[in-house]
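Field reference: sequence -> structure
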Amino acid sequence: MTKAEVIAEIANRTEIDKQKVGIIIETFFQVVKDKMAEGENIYVRGFGSFINKKRAQKIGRNISKKVSIVIPAHFVPNFKPAKEFEERIKNSEVLNSMLTQNQ
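Structure field:
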């Protein structure tokens, strides 16, 4: 599903204009990015958490030059779904039927 499809779905469910929904969605994403860049984590009860995870410094290899390089410690954005979100996915009849079809 694309962002445009999400916007259209929300507009259909709420009967709010697509343009207004698009502005709200874009603003939400911008707030998440801005706040995480400022070092804040975002917790949405029942949905999940957007958190900054620290990656330790490590030694990597540049295979083409055959040299070791130091990859400095850094933060990466991460999403951790809430338990009820995980349970809804685990218990999804549609997804479970897809598992049985692929076996």
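Note: The first helix runs from residue 3 to 14.
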